[in-house]
């Protein structure tokens, strides 16, 4: 059961694969959302590649840009989950576009003069079949911190397969226990921080 006072989470899934095809990033994001739901935090996922999000660093690039609709959902949420695959050792190009669009928030402020993202929490989910999850999450967290998000302890969950092989997260028969435990902890910590920020926002 949800109430208006409960935090909400928005997952922006930055796979390069449009729906309805399967996606490891989307699968891990859904597992994180399930853990948030278990902590009383409802949410939804958007596969960004399905939307016409224009390149740019403004909150609205006009001409049918899909970002303003996504932004409204983000403004109504307390927690952002940014889910990305690893490509060539980096976050996906879709994840980079999301960060560039979020850069526009630095010039958008609330009634207290604070950027809108200052009292929101950011978390990250990363998948890939080579090492690199630490590097990718570091890149994302630095950008999200610059934009104003708060990062909880243990704010990332990830899975990477062995080097030089082609197994994807979505192809596993069972989620590894360590990944499941990390996902569970991410949701608990992010929920805790979001509730703290709701009760005591950053000062103007």
Q: What are the main properties of this structure?
A:
204 residues, alpha/beta, Rossmann fold, 17% strand, globular
Describe this structure in words.
By secondary structure, this protein is α/β, with parallel strands linked by helices. It has one domain (9-198): 3-Layer(aba) Sandwich (Rossmann fold). The chain is built from five helices and six strands; from the N terminus they run βαβαββαβαβα. The protein has helices at residues 24-38, 67-75, 93-102, 133-147, 177-199, and strands spanning 9-13, 43-47, 79-87, 90-91, 121-128, 156-160. Helix 1 (24-38) links the parallel strand 1 (9-13) and strand 2 (43-47). The protein is globular, with a radius of gyration of 16 Å.
Spans with pLDDT under 50 lasting ≥5 residues? Answer: none
Helix percent band: 25-40%
- What's the CATH topology label? Rossmann fold
Pattern of helices and strands: EHEHEEHEHEH
Organism: Kibdelosporangium banguiense
Protein name: Multimeric flavodoxin WrbA
Domain NADPH-dependent FMN reductase-like: 8-162
How does the SSE layout of this entry go?
Layout: E1 9-13, H1 24-38, E2 43-47, H2 67-75, E3 79-87, E4 90-91, H3 93-102, E5 121-128, H4 133-147, E6 156-160, H5 177-199
Parallel strand pairs: 1-2, 1-3, 3-5, 5-6
Antiparallel strand pairs: 3-4
Helix pairs in contact: 1-5
InterPro entries: Flavoprotein-like_sf, FMN_Rdtase-like_dom
Organism: Kibdelosporangium banguiense
Domain NADPH-dependent FMN reductase-like: 8-162
């Amino acid at each position: 059961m949800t109430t208006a006072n409960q935090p909400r989470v928005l997952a922006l899934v930055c796979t390069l694969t449009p729906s309805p095809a399967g996606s490891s990033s989307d699968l891990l994001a859904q597992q994180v959302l399930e853990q948030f739901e278990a902590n009383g935090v409802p949410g939804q996922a958007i596969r960004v590649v399905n939307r016409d999000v224009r390149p740019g660093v403004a909150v609205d690039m006009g001409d049918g840009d899909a970002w303003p609709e996504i932004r409204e959902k983000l403004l109504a949420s307390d927690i952002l989950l940014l889910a990305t695959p690893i490509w060539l050792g980096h976050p996906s190009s879709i994840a980079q576009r999301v960060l560039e669009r979020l850069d526009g928030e630095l010039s958008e402020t609330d009634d207290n003069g604070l950027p809108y993202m200052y009292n929101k929490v950011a978390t990250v989910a990363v998948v890939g079949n080579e090492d690199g999850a630490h590097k990718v999450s570091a890149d994302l967290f630095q950008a999200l911190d610059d934009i104003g998000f708060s990062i909880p302890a243990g704010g990332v969950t990830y899975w990477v397969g062995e080097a030089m092989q082609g197994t994807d997260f979505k192809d596993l028969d069972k989620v590894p226990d360590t990944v499941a435990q990390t996902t569970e902890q991410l949701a608990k910590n992010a929920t805790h921080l979001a509730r703290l920020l709701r009760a005591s926002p950053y000062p103007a």
